[in-house]
Amino acid sequence: MKAKYVLVVTVTLLSAALLVTACSSPITTREQGGLIGAGLGAGTGAIIGSTVGHAAAGALIGGPVGLIAGALIGDQLMAQERRQDNQQQAIDRNQTEIDRLRRENERLREELR
């Protein structure tokens, strides 16, 4: 019974936190990972804790552990997104330079004729 109560409270709090943050500004990948990790950690902790009769303690331990793990994973994903964005910008700059050089090459060929 306690595990169900803790799980319902955890899901309700995480849903409320997600709703509040969604209204203020877009959440980052790190924050999204942290919220998901906290929910999964608290739920898993409550389930594991309920097997030994301490669902609330399991949720209180699992929540922060999940939060940290989820935030770390989200941080790594954000870094990968930044690297990909930087690579795409470099590709775009190189393509612009290639196009400029092609036009210049064509112009010079026309002058030589």
Structural write-up:
This protein has one domain (2-112). The chain has helices at 2-24, 29-51, 55-112. The chain has 113 residues and is mainly alpha-helical. The protein has 3 helices and no strands.
Offer a quick outline of the entry.
It contains 3 helices and no strands. It has helices spanning 2-24, 29-51, 55-112.
Write out key terms for the chains shown.
rod-shaped; 113 residues; mainly alpha
Order of helices and strands: HHH
Main sheet record: none
- Shape, please? rod-shaped
- Total helical segments: 3
Mean pLDDT: 84
Q: State the end-to-end CA separation.
A: 89 Å
List segments where confidence is low: pLDDT < 50 over at least 5 consecutive residues: none
| Global structural class | mainly alpha
Q: Which SSEs are present, and which pair or pack?
A:
Blueprint: H1 2-24, H2 29-51, H3 55-112
Helix pairs in contact: 1-2, 2-3
